[in-house]
From TrEMBL:
This is E3 ubiquitin-protein ligase TRIM71. The lineage of its organism: Eukaryota, Metazoa, Cnidaria, Anthozoa, Hexacorallia. Coiled coil: none annotated. It comes from the Eukaryota. GO terms for molecular function: ubiquitin protein ligase activity. The keyword Metal-binding does not apply. NHL repeats lie at residues 1-40, 45-89, 137-178. GO terms for biological process: proteasome-mediated ubiquitin-dependent protein catabolic process; protein polyubiquitination. PROSITE patterns: NHL. InterPro entries: 6-blade_b-propeller_TolB-like (IPR011042), NHL_repeat (IPR001258), TRIM-NHL_E3_ligases (IPR050952). The gene is trim71.
Length: 214
């Protein structure tokens, strides 16, 4: 993987996700774009986005995911403090989170679950939930290091039992989808994902590998 801004090159790739059996999408924070590559060959397929705050533009995309219906790409923009939704061809269809009283302040990650967008709001130290049209629904969490409190939340995922696993700078916490705290670990994480056998994969900000939790 080469460093640069040409097709197939990268500047600070922040997140990656499978888009189909052969393809991956990569969010490039410093090139302000999303690239699609063939995972079998490593060849460039297509890209969209360039630096800016308008439609079709991105600023420091921190993560990318596929909407639950599999038909839309969801991009979290750290720099523009918003979420943008695109077609699979990179055409913009929706943006939200950057206006109104519950605007985002440097979001990091998003998961789509049951027609909801669940977003970690880093600087507001909370999780915000939006409906399928990008309208604010509710939030949970507040600044602190107690159970159910958050200190700069980053990665999140939904496990095989419908629990929300949420990373902040001191641990992973488990919540219901309504925001009720149900458990925690002592691992210092950055991002988290689940495996089909219920094991949990964790990357740490200062770690040199991936940890596996049961």
């Amino acid at each position: 993987m080469e460093t640069g801004n040409q097709e197939g090159q990268f500047q600070n790739p922040a997140d990656v996700i499978f888009v189909n059996d052969d393809g991956i999408l990569v969010a490039e924070e410093c090139n302000h774009r999303i690239q699609q590559l063939n995972v079998q060959t490593g060849n460039f397929v297509k890209r969209f986005g360039k630096q800016g705050s308008g439609d079709r533009q991105l600023k420091n995309p921190a993560s990318v995911c596929i909407k639950s219906d599999g038909e839309f790409i969801v991009v979290v923009e750290y720099g523009n403090s918003r979420i943008q939704v695109f077609t699979m061809d990179g055409e913009p269809v929706l943006k939200f989170g950057d206006i109104g009283p519950e605007r985002l302040n440097h979001p990091i990650a998003c998961v789509c679950y049951e027609d909801k967008f669940i977003v970690t709001d880093l600087k507001n130290n909370c999780v915000k939930v939006f409906d399928s049209k990008g309208q604010f629904s509710h939030k949970f969490g507040e600044k602190g290091n107690g159970d159910g409190q958050l200190e700069m939340p980053t990665g999140l995922c939904i496990d095989n039992y419908g629990n929300l696993l949420l990373c902040d700078v001191v641990r992973i916490q488990q919540f219901t989808l309504e925001g009720t705290f149900t458990g925690k670990t002592s691992t210092v994480p950055w991002s988290v994902a689940t495996m089909p056998d219920d094991r949990i994969l964790v990357t740490g900000f200062n770690e040199r590998g991936v940890k596996t939790l049961r």
